[in-house]
């Protein structure tokens, strides 16, 4: 499936994000991103540590779900990886793609509702930074189940979320058709590797 391009160079998923905010999210990050550059600050330390402590090489395909303006995606692309960033906010994706173009980074931005989004192909790393907790439990677990179908063999899933959601996430992996080994499960962090 090919997505149409929007004016800012990002990709749209065929709906208006503003219509979705009221249904799926209590907070409108698009309004924040329109007025505040780098609104969420530096890359998440947990992810910085993961990439710094492992010899992953370069050129991995990474899916950053709920990427916003790209605080994690930009850092990961600067390490030489190819990143697809997905977010409901057109303004966040526009900021992400503009920064990527300025820095000549391998990043594709997609505007999409993650409760409906299905990635193209497989990814070496699926990264979800404080995004799933914004959804109700049913849609949250369904979206995670659909996303992990697109993790390559020996690939990673890196989740930072509310501590209370980690047990539910584990049930999704336990029920999945592939085998997963838990590398980290503490304080709102869940890192798993596909066997």
TrEMBL record:
This is Putative S-adenosyl-L-methionine-dependent methyltransferase TehB. One of its GO terms (molecular function) is methyltransferase activity. It comes from the Bacteria. Residues 62-155 form the Methyltransferase domain. One of its GO terms (biological process) is methylation. The keyword NAD does not apply. Its EC number is 2.1.1.-. The keyword Methyltransferase applies. InterPro entries: Methyltransf_25, SAM-dependent_MTases_sf. Keywords: Methyltransferase, Transferase. Gene3D superfamilies: Vaccinia Virus protein VP39 (3.40.50.150). PANTHER family: TRANS-ACONITATE 2-METHYLTRANSFERASE-RELATED (PTHR43861).
